[in-house]
Amino acid sequence: MGNNVVEILYTDACPFWKETMKMIDEVMKELNLAATVKKTRITSEEEAKRYGFPGSPTVRVNGVDIDPAARDMPSYIGCRIYTFKGRTYESPPKKMMTTGFKRLIKK
């Protein structure tokens, strides 16, 4: 497995990143994935724009958001809402994360 990087981008003002971090660990164990996990705290609108940050928490695998809908989202320093299978979530649901990891991890 190549040099995979899983990154969580977050703000301190949005508490949902902590649960997302636990979910990342859980999904990586379940899928038996080895990757570098990187945490990036976003502290300003300027950083949000520089990172193309669509809200907290954001999970990227090898630089690509696990949510394909993120391509059309503007940079934003607030909390992010995820939509998956017709429901909304304050952090990426486990099934979305698992699907994203499977799609984006280099073999």
Short description:
With 107 residues, the protein is α+β, with helices and mostly antiparallel strands.
CATH A-level architecture:
3-Layer(aba) Sandwich
Compute the number of helices. Answer: 3
**What is the CATH first-level class name?**
Alpha Beta
**Structural class estimated from helices and strands:** alpha+beta
Question: Biggest β-sheet: count, sense, barrel?
Answer: 4 strands, mixed
Strand order within the widest sheet?
2-1-3-4
N- to C-terminal distance: 5 Å
Strand content: 15-25%
Number of strands: 6
Number of domains: 1
So what's the overall shape?
Answer: globular
Estimated helix fraction:
25-40%
Order of helices and strands: EHEHEEEEH
Low-confidence region ranges: none
- CATH topology type: Glutaredoxin
Radius of gyration: 13 Å
Instruction: Summarize model confidence as the mean pLDDT.
Output: 92
